[in-house]
Amino acid sequence: MRVISFVNMKGGVGKTTLAVNCADALSRRLDKRVLLIDLDPQFNATQSLYSGEDYLRLRKDGEDTIYDVFANPAPIISAVNGHKEIPPKKLQEIEPTAISGNLHVLLGNLEIYRIEMGGGQGTEFRLKTFLKHKADSYDYVIIDTPPTPSVFMSSALLASEYYVVPIKPEPMSRVGIDLLQGVINRVSENNGHDIKCAGVVITMAQTNTIVYKDCLKELRKDAMWKSRLLRTSVPQRTAIARGQGDQKLILDSNDAETKRALANIVTEIVKKIDDAPSD
Hints:
10 helices; 279 residues; two-stranded antiparallel sheet; alpha/beta; Rossmann fold; globular
């Protein structure tokens, strides 16, 4: 099982769109068993897959969420089910929701804000422990992380072998990913955990613009990032963002260029992981 976090410390860069659609492409195009984990408290990945009505129905039917992973041993307070306390489950009892035969999701949950995670409690390792119980169930796990450094981002990184960085072509992109690498390095060094970069992906790309060309030039000459930059970018499409709000995925669109870009990005990520030296 390969665990990959999609990370960036800045919102609005297409991180969730890329994470959700890579998970979908891995399951549908490569026939892999994939678990998508929505660890962002804004739970945008979940909203990309389910309408509000469908999400509430799933919650009322008792479907597990990311909150279940972190709530133990405190009771779960469910506003969806009438603001009542629910006894927490053991990690091995938590089951993701099936979207299709090959693609499952651990639903996001706004109530994750209730979780208090202080240093030294070991709570940041609960996601990693949960995934150990699922090691035989999935080929890939994709984690959509919060856009800011937090205990939740640390939990994702500690559970992951690899990370992917989506960046928007803009002047501050280089500064942002350098700061992100510092966060990743601290988490890794403080916990003796090795995590490798499986790719930097330029999103919302308008390839004929100066900002895109400048971003590409800067990344290609940077010693840290030039070998990690993927050859394929995600083209800017208003329809992609609009479709995400209506639970429409890239592979279901009529946009041949974007579908081809997604397929190439997934292929590049898989190859980087397969080619990575083993420990």
